[in-house]
Amino acid sequence: MPGMPEGPIKAIPGARPIRPGDLDGLWAQEKRNEIVKRVKYLVNDDLEEPPHILAARRALYARGKNWRDASDDEILRMLDSLPRALFESKIWKRHPPPPANSDYYDLVTRIHSSELDFYGYDSNSPGGRLLYMLRDARLDPCPSSFYQHLKRAGISVDRAVHFTRRTVTRADTPLLSLPYKLEDKRRLFVGDMARFLAQMQGRGGGEIPNATFVVPPGKGRENRNGNGSDDAWIEEGFLKIDSRTLLFDTTMNSSLLQAVREAGLRPAVIIKQFTFWPDGADEDTAALEKAAVAEYNTTHWLTQNYDVYERHPGSGFVSCNPTIYIRKGRSLNDAPVEAPTTAPTPTIPPTLPVPRHEEYQYLELVREILDHGELRRDRTGTGTYSLFAPTPLKFSLNRSGTPILPLLTTKRVYTRAIIAELLWFISGDTSSQTLSSQNVKIWDGNGSRAFLDSLGFTDRQEGDLGPVYGFQWRHFGAQYVDCKTDYTGQGVDQLARIIRTLRTNPYDRRLVLSAWNPADMSKMVLPPCHMFAQFYVSFPGSRRGTQQQQKQSQGGEEETKVKGHLHCQLYQRSCDMGLGVPFNIASYALLTHMLARVTGLVPGSLTHVMGDAHVYLNHVEALETQLTREPREFPELEIVGHEEWDETKGDELGIDGWKVEDFVIRGYEPHKAIQMEMSV
Ligand SMILES: Nc1nc(=O)c2c([nH]1)NC[C@@H]1CN(c3ccc(C(=O)N[C@@H](CCC(=O)O)C(=O)O)cc3)CN21
Ligand SMILES: O=c1ccn([C@H]2C[C@H](O)[C@@H](COP(=O)(O)O)O2)c(=O)[nH]1
């Protein structure tokens, strides 16, 4: 089962309770940080657990058991026997704060560290996990599975449908993914749900065809009673679901229950009662419990609690307690009840494949690295989580012809620095001081006296980075002396060659820009990270258009010219996901925009291929925060003061002498900046 401990949980030989400081090693850094964060919150932040939970913890503590030495059976028995309250940790504010008592600290540390052992790090969202468990139980029934639990309780399930809001976690990787555009999302959401269920009915049951419906982004929670809220769409969607469908709900409990009650269709529903830790329980749960007493029998699925435990980015922890609500006098195996004819029947529109925001590619890659990256040492000594050769990211550089800049919106990206750095590359400059004097300090760490000396460049003047990007782009093969030397006319001007070829033979397959020059490597402070780019001109449109263009390129005379679209594919050997990559994406997008402008082409796309894609350990928290944010529209880019090239303009390169102000970025409304430290 994905992410689940397989077979019995192994006791660690010779283990003893975890104490503060025990987990200082690199391997345990994340675990330790989490534990310390949680314990600090309890002990220092003026919060305490309610007395009954405290009592439960004391009872546990009094057993004097060393959790790490206990056998699997013992641990499971102990968990089973614990008061239920223990699993519902709600934290109350209390004045004055509890004393920072070391027993308390130790106890809480042990409880939570043991939890982490059980739950593991890569659990899916509770809803997602339940679905996987249902699916996997069919393939490989295991006695502790949720499916078995349902079976023991005499409940059979035809299908499970899970609703959740999209947050950027692997947790929400839906089994059925339905993308929605902002406009029309309500119509499509309801329509898709109906279509999906109709298909399922057509198959006649048998298998459990589970689905996760990711609720499209919206203001559901703030706008609960308003028209068009997420909840309203969900409720409308429910009307399409018959009684053999088990409903899951993550964060919309009261609306779900209300829908169930009002529609009277479903005899039962499973609610995962969330306890947000440390900010108290989901307020929906109370309303739900009240209604449930009168109308439903409930069964709790307590001992499996750890199966659906999730580390919740940005909000501390969530513990989750799924409850099955069965309408009094009915069972889940009742015959399906048809939806009342009075229920609104939405017309089912065809689902158009609407692409998701491209920024999710970046966010999902970061998630993937955090969840599955290998913990590795690195040159800088910081340590990283790393994956090799992930799926490339691809960004469009125009929206119906309007130039677009893929500038991340889930944090503010420092655009002026990116443009200044790119113009600095193009100018062939290799001194970090040139950038620094424009107040762009991003290369200062690698050009500092101390860093140069540490590499043995003691004779080099401060800021001289050696034959790095700018030198290779404009003077590849020239003999590097220092950053002050004038290299005019020396070496290969790769940029000039690319521009000329784009103008004269857009079909060329050698449109390559390489900063990787093994002969110069020992002179560089840092070997190029973004090391290799290839350009390509496509001629989208009809076949006829293509033929027209081919005639054009072969010297044939045509009245209408088809404009080529310029694409760039970048290979980056080493990718600092937190700091460098947002810069690199924007930078190569800008370069492609510039090249398109000076060659009379339409900016097409940027494909970013990565080698070692890593997250520095000191960026984990910042990126977790970033992952909770929802992308906003990418900004538009206007280039001012540089007319588009056409054949009448001759051989003038047009790429030199640009200024930061020549780039006007419109409609960039990012989330706020997030500080991350650069490892040197
Ligand atoms: N470890 C490391 N990561 C990198 O990404 C990186 C290097 N080193 N060395 C060379 C270049 C320089 N690049 C950098 C360096 C720093 C930032 C940076 O600190 N960016 C901040 C804003 C900087 C500021 O406000 O001055 C950011 O929040 O994006 C970005 C790119 C990319 N490179
Ligand atoms: O444009 C850049 C430049 C650098 N980086 C990152 C990638 C690595 O974290 C370091 C370089 O260290 P190496 O040991 O040489 O790989 O800088 C980046 O992401 N983007």
What does this structure look like?
The protein is α+β, with helices and mostly antiparallel strands. 33% of the residues lie in helices and 17% in strands. Strands 11, 12, 13, 16, 17, 18 and 19 form a seven-stranded mixed sheet that branches. Strands 6, 7, 8, 9 and 10 form a five-stranded antiparallel sheet that branches. It has a three-stranded parallel sheet with strand order 4-3-5, with helices on one face. It is globular and about 85 Å long. The N terminus is likely disordered. The site of 5,10-methenyl-6,7,8-trihydrofolic acid has 16 residues, from helix 19. Pathway: Pyrimidine metabolism; dTTP biosynthesis. It is an enzyme of class 2 (transferase). InterPro entries: Thymidate_synth/dCMP_Mease, Thymidate_synth/dCMP_Mease_dom, Thymidate_synth/dCMP_Mease_sf, Thymidylate_synthase, Thymidylate_synthase_AS.
Q: Topology of this structure?
A:
Elements: H1 29-44, E1 47-48, H2 51-62, H3 72-81, E2 92-93, H4 102-119, H5 126-139, H6 146-152, E3 159-165, H7 185-202, E4 211-215, H8 230-238, E5 245-249, H9 253-263, E6 268-277, E7 280-281, H10 284-295, E8 296-300, E9 310-311, E10 317-327, H11 359-372, E11 374-376, E12 384-388, E13 393-396, E14 398-399, E15 402-403, H12 415-426, H13 432-436, H14 444-447, H15 449-454, H16 469-475, H17 494-504, E16 512-514, E17 530-538, H18 543-553, E18 565-576, H19 580-599, E19 602-616, H20 620-627, E20 636-639, E21 663-666
Helix pairs in contact: 1-4, 7-8, 8-9, 11-20, 12-19
The protein binds 5,10-methenyl-6,7,8-trihydrofolic acid and ligand LAUPNLSC.
Keywords: Methyltransferase, Nucleotide biosynthesis, Transferase
EC number: 2.1.1.45
InterPro entries: Thymidate_synth/dCMP_Mease, Thymidate_synth/dCMP_Mease_dom, Thymidate_synth/dCMP_Mease_sf, Thymidylate_synthase, Thymidylate_synthase_AS
